[in-house]
Fold this protein.
Amino acid sequence: MPRAGLGRAAVVDLALAVVDDGGPTGFTDLTLAAVAGRAGVAVPSLYKHVAGLPGLRREVARTSIEGFTTSLVAARGSLDGPDALRAMADATRAYAKAYPGRYQCVQGSSWARDPDAAAVQTAAARTVDLLAGAIAALGVAPERRIDAVRAFRAAVHGFVVLELDGGFGMPDDVDVSFAFLVDGLVGGLERLAVR
């Protein structure tokens, strides 16, 4: 019999806590045993609520992606074009710093090929659509928008991962470097605009 109060949402919340406490490798290190330990139940009890570790990982990924997208939407607000891209880049960095384990699964690519991850794919598509909309508002031609989205995501993600891993050891201000990167990306995309 399941523990009173332990349901699917509670199991996912416990898993998110495990991921959050694990730092940048929190998602990779997520186990059913860790979640069961927090819940005070045996591992088999979790199977009443989630489809094993793969199912739990999908739920954590979906929840994390939805939270990430919510932060991008809030940052973008009514902004468009260059200001929207800058705000979303800043929000990406802030989310990664606040939730490095969740950020790890937000950026994962294995979901695209997982036939059981339709909800994750839908959530991820919303995130990409948000970024693509801001890029389209710059006037980037439709045939270049996928390239632009990929370039923007890759550059911001690369910076964020290096920062999380302690890869910027020089004493210069990392915030200034991040703004330099984003300004360069935005400027480059503006030059692609159809006039």
Observations:
- The mean pLDDT is 92.
- The CA atoms of residues 140 and 191 lie 8 Å apart.
